[in-house]
Design brief:
The protein is α+β, with helices and mostly antiparallel strands. It has a domain of about 45 residues. Helices cover about 40% and strands about 10% of the residues. A two-stranded antiparallel ribbon has the order 1-2. It is flat. The N and C termini lie far apart (about 40 Å).
């Protein structure tokens, strides 16, 4: 256990309507791998998120991910979306 480990993937969503999203069901079936867990876990989360968006017609004002963006850009885009009119 290492509480100082940085996350490998962070998904930030800003919605202006509807209920909050829970993506935990992406892991209803545990990820199994002999070559690490990060990549298959990220793929499971992304696939589940895409399926929710398609099924329920979910839209977000912003969707930002680390490591696709650096931390400063991530925070700026989330805050801009959250506080824009």
């Amino acid at each position: 256990m290492n509480g100082a480990t940085l996350p490998s993937y962070v998904l930030g969503l800003v919605k202006d309507q509807g209920q909050p999203l829970q993506l935990i069901n992406a892991f209803e079936t545990p990820v199994a791998s002999r070559n690490g867990f990060v990549s298959p876990s990220v793929e499971a989360l992304k696939a589940h998120h895409e399926q929710l968006k398609k099924t329920w017609n979910i839209t977000a004002k912003a969707e930002v991910a680390i490591p696709d963006e650096d931390l400063n850009t991530f925070c700026t885009r989330i805050l801009d979306a959250a506080f824009s009119q």
